[in-house]
Amino acid sequence: MQLQTHMLFKKDEWRLLWPFYVMYFFLGLSNILDPYIIIYFRELGYSFFQIAILTGGFAFGVILFEIPTGIFADLKSRKLSVFIGFTILGSAIILIPFVHSFILNLVLWFVAGLGVTFISGADEAWRVDNLKYARRKDLVQESFIKVQVIAGIGFIIGPLVSIVVVQYYSLKWVWVISGLCVLIGGIFVFFNKEIYTPRKKQGLSTFSLRKLFITSLKKASSTFKLFLRKRPLFLILLGGIFTAMMVMTDNAWQPLLTYLSLPTPYLGLVYAILGVVMIVSAFIPRYLERFNIQTSMSILIFVDMIVLLSLLFVAHPFFIFGALIFIAHMAMLRPSYNTIIETYFHKHVPSSIRATAGSVKNMMLSMAALLVTLFGGILIDYLGPLKAIVVSAIFGVLAIATYLQLKSSNF
């Protein structure tokens, strides 16, 4: 066992990081729910627009609390912040299937978004600080890679388990199991120490919280002005919005696949395969390094457009072709967007505001995604799943036109 551990992990890596890795395995395992979210709410009689409002409530919770919860983690405790996040998120997921009121469901999705903000950023800061204290900075990048891989393994196992759950029980239990996985993951928070101490001994005072919040908003405002002044950053932001419009109808995929005759339980198998392909697709950008940013993004978006438009030739009962198109769209192409754009983005951002610029960019793209997802819900209700997905592909033309205006540079 010790020999196997040494083959998989670097020296001291498992000893220092195993609670984080186990925590993320259970977080990945909670994706047992993902293949059935839209199907569940459709069975409750919700329209696609109503479902878009629910997921929009989650996004709004993330947008609204991203800064305050980050301040809480810095002033109080990253460890406590992560535990609170896992507890809130897991509890909200468990409660959702027992609530049938649209308003109460919206509240729970909003609360789930709040839970995610307590985890996001705080877990990474906690992990990095611990490694720096242990004088193992060499494990920082390795930990980011391993977290993705281990969570990815959970993402594969979860949907496979869901096949049995959905086949012999109701969809309600998928929510419960997912929430329990999150809560169990949160328990492993207590198996690791926290080296970090708050910057201010007085802790989380109303004054310090208000002061830091105002400072954060001022810095965010100045960074937003930088986006408007610096053309590459503005084009990245605009291109991101058009790219978001290409995926605004993603809520239509689960109903479309079942319409094409895929048995509902086997959505779990499709998502498990998706998880495997996502791990492999992370290496696609390596093969595009020889091209400049304009060519790389144009190739990816154009291929994605062709993939989505090919749905026009898929009909009932050939669900296997629909599933292949879904996997190609979700795993083979989209993750590459982020890798290429993030690398190019950080080349054009001053080091002094790198973190703030990243937060502002993510927040603005989240707001754009929230709005286009609502529009996507209306589109699906009006056109139906297949036609709505095809129409969304057309926005790739605008995305390509935007990225072609970037300065020639290898990402």
Structure description:
By secondary structure, the protein is mainly alpha-helical. The protein folds into 2 domains: 12-204, Growth Hormone, Chain: A; 221-411, Growth Hormone, Chain: A, CATH 1.20.1250.20. Helix content is 75%, strand content 0%. It contains 18 helices and no strands. It has helices at 2-8, 13-29, 37-43, 48-75, 78-95, 102-119, 122-133, 140-168, 172-187, 206-229, 231-246, 253-259, 267-281, 293-309, 319-347, 354-383, 385-393, 396-403. The longest helix has 30 residues, at 354-383. The protein is globular, with a radius of gyration of 22 Å. The model has no long low-confidence stretch (mean pLDDT 84).
